[in-house]
Amino acid sequence: MIRLNCFFQANEGCAAEALEAAKALTKASLEQEGCIAYDVFASATRPGVLLICETWKDEATLAAHSNSAPFAKYVEIINRAGKMKIEKFDF
Length: 91
Hints:
Blueprint: E1 2-10, H1 15-30, E2 35-42, E3 49-56, H2 59-66, H3 69-81, E4 82-90
Antiparallel strand pairs: 1-3, 1-4, 2-3
């Protein structure tokens, strides 16, 4: 399995837009084959900070996700709204 932790910091005034896109991406991703878990968390102490946690069955299902239309649509919005750092773990 593969776990991605995606840490996000919104640009000023873009937090709500980023959160809505992250929620939509989460909903779409949970319907994709090979998705074990997918969730988005908003920081209670740091405005505009999100954590998206993803768990995928294997590299093939993660690749399919990364090439999907919902991924392209919502990640474009998220990337415009701030900066993201991704950590990847195989287990």
